[in-house]
Amino acid sequence: RAFIMPPSILALFEARPPLPFIPPVPHPKMPTYLGLASFIEHFENPADVDWSKMPKSESKDVRKSRIRAERLKKAEARIAEDMQTWNPHEDPKIEGDPYKTLFIARMSYETTKHKLKREFEQYGPIKRLRLVEDVNSGQPRGYAFIEFEKERDMRQAYKLADGKKIDGRRVLVDVERGRSVKNWKPRRFGGGLGGTRIGAKEQNQIYSGREPPATGAGASGGRDDRDRDRDRGRSERDRPRESSGYDRERDRDRGDRRAEDRYRR
């Protein structure tokens, strides 16, 4: 019944022409594999080599130590150069009385002037607050200076605000030492009081504040006292139960004797 189909449909069932023959790609003959014995004559004789002129190889640890020493030397040279031009007494950005000013460090980068002022106003009226920012990006650098109107308020904040938690970070509170301490060097010049970036993890300071937390008997005394009070309270709660149980047994015996006397009568 193919004659019933139109020519356009019959064309779909026609066989395609055969594929043309393509000869295979000729593969060149590869040379045979040889050992290293035939190449020994191309190597230099070890007896003729001057080993003193050969570059010495260094291990991974030696390379790391060398790079660290080079970076440390460059940093020391840069610090020495910057120290020649650093003078806090002539800095136009530094104002106010240094003996009424506090240095606040280890702050959160999200802490604002308004938040910081609200936290320290409880110690006394604030005259000036400076939140230090990066010169290029304008982002806060994590420390600030607060000048109080009275030196008495500054001393109270110095004693009570150290280790205070602001925006999830415990801040370090110290006096301004740049203009009040002779030969003082800031943290960026290798000075400062902090020890959070000395070197290895076991060498760095892990506590917040100026002084380490109390250790020894004094630190654990509070917990021991609480445990002792808890045990004392538990024993006091158990004592009435024992005495009441004893009283119930005695009352039961007394009732049995009365019943026996009544029966005998």
Shape: extended
Q: What share of the residues does DSSP label as strand, in percent?
A: 5-15%
Sheet/helix structural class? alpha+beta
Helix count equals 5
Largest sheet: 4 strands, antiparallel
Count of extended strands: 6
- From the alpha-carbon coordinates, what is the Rg to the nearest angstrom? 44 Å
For the biggest β-sheet, the strand order reads 2-3-1-6
Low-confidence stretches: 216-231, 240-246
Order of helices and strands, N to C? HHEHEEHEEEH
Helix content: 25-40%
Distance between the termini: 130 Å
Structure description:
This protein is α+β, with helices and mostly antiparallel strands. Helix content is 36%, strand content 11%. It is built from 5 helices and 6 strands. The strands form 2 sheets. Strands 2-3-1-6 form a 4-stranded antiparallel sheet, covered by helices on one side. A two-stranded antiparallel sheet has the order 4-5. A hairpin with a 2-residue loop joins strand 4 (165-166) and strand 5 (169-170). The longest helix is centred in the last third of the chain and has 48 residues, at 217-264. The termini are far apart. The model is unreliable at 216-231 and 240-246 (pLDDT under 50).
Topology:
Blueprint: H1 7-10, H2 60-85, E1 101-105, H3 113-120, E2 126-133, E3 140-148, H4 151-160, E4 165-166, E5 169-170, E6 172-175, H5 217-264
Antiparallel strand pairs: 1-3, 1-6, 2-3, 4-5
